[in-house]
Design brief:
- 35% of the residues are buried.
- The chain has 13 helices and ten strands.
- An eight-stranded mixed barrel has the order 1-2-4-5-6-7-8-9, surrounded by four helices.
- The radius of gyration is 21 Å and the shape is globular.
- Helices cover 45% and strands 20% of the residues.
- A hairpin with a 5-residue loop joins strand 1 and strand 2.
- With 285 residues, it is α/β, with parallel strands linked by helices.
- The structure holds ligand C2E and magnesium ion (3 copies).
- The site of one magnesium ion (MG) has 4 residues, from strand 6.
Length: 285
């Protein structure tokens, strides 16, 4: 009793703790327990072939089902998880879960998994991936990893060796959010990417802003010339789709086709016998 009074008095004289700091501390404590409590889930967003409208894969996107706060999007906890080192065990869970889910799905579907820089550079990533493939029985050629430019910022030789090692297993490598970070054209020359994902910020304005259109055009031309595929992220409108298709982007992803959905929803909407095998671009728009 006296103790709690004392604490209260002390707090009265101390400047109020920044609400954001308190909130962050609470979140951190919860985050440390979330994995063991089974509070993470993966949602999956279709990746659509521009030419045919077929779904050729899905991107796995993590969500945190917090018992009090509800469904928390990754941008609200992944940076914190990276800061406190939790991204390694969380990322391992993501890889295992994604491989397990994809192994139940038709062979034509590949699965893309996001890998943070801290996770990429943590020793043991290759073993985790190999272990997840073995445990699920998923063919390595159906797994794609998405990394951002931040991965390439340090230990170039180690990064290159790792990318080659993963590729030798049959895993595909995608450069995520291209054009936002520390983009350098030499990266594209040095690193063996299979695909470049053009950041949503360029797609958003593609129908209204000439410079966004020019950037998309240049990236698509460059990637095609180097034998890499391109994915346009964040396609929301029919008009954006038409522009993107005209620029030769090979793959599209966005709310126009589908939001990220739980596995059961993906199965019901896109993989059940009643579902059309091919996404009807015209119906979707
Ligand atoms: P990202 O890898 O670039 O993923 C694409 C993000 O764009 C997803 O947000 C997706 O929901 C959103 N998106 C897709 N289409 C549209 C659209 O048409 N309009 C709009 N407004 N948004 C669209 P989400 O799921 O909130 O994920 C945000 C970021 O969090 C991801 O960006 C990725 O960097 C990170 N992330 C997600 N899951 C994981 C994970 O398992 N591990 C790691 N390390 N990072 C993850
Ligand atoms: Mg991604
Ligand atoms: Mg992205
Ligand atoms: Mg992005």
């Amino acid at each position: 009793q006296a103790k709690s009074e004392g604490r209260g008095t002390y707090r009265f004289f101390e400047p109020a703790m920044d609400e954001q700091v308190q909130n962050r501390r609470a979140l951190e404590l919860d985050l440390r327990k979330a994995l063991a409590a089974g509070e993470f889930e993966l949602h999956y967003q279709p990746l659509v072939q521009t030419e045919t409208g077929e779904i050729s894969g899905v991107e796995a996107l993590i969500r945190w089902r917090h018992p009090q706060r509800g469904l928390i999007p990754p941008n609200s906890f992944i940076p914190l998880a990276e800061e406190i080192g939790l991204i390694v065990p969380i990322g391992e869970w993501v890889i295992r879960q994604a491989c397990m889910t994809a192994s139940r799905w038709p062979d034509r579907l590949h699965i893309a998994v996001n890998i943070s820089a801290a996770q990429f550079h943590h020793p043991g990533l290759a073993e985790v991936i190999v272990g997840a493939l073995a445990a699920s029985g998923l063919d390595a050629r159906r797994l794609e990893i998405e990394i951002t430019e931040s991965v390439l910022l340090h230990d170039k030789n180690g990064t290159l060796a790792m990318l080659h090692r993963l590729r030798a297993l049959g895993i595909r490598i995608a450069m995520d959010d291209f054009g936002t970070g520390y983009s350098s054209l030499t990266y594209l020359q040095c690193f063996p990417f299979d695909k470049i994902k053009i950041d949503r910020s360029f797609i958003r304005d593609i129908a209204t802003d000439a410079s966004s259109l020019n950037i998309v055009r240049a990236i698509a031309a460059l990637a095609n010339g180097m034998g890499m595929g391109t994915t346009a992220e964040g396609v929301e409108t029919r008009e954006q789709l038409d522009r993107i298709a005209a620029e030769g982007c090979t793959e599209v992803q966005g709310f126009l086709f589908s939001r990220p959905l739980p596995a059961a929803e993906i199965e019901r909407k896109f993989l059940s016998t009643e579902a059309p095998a091919v996404l009807d671009r015209f119906a979707a728009a």
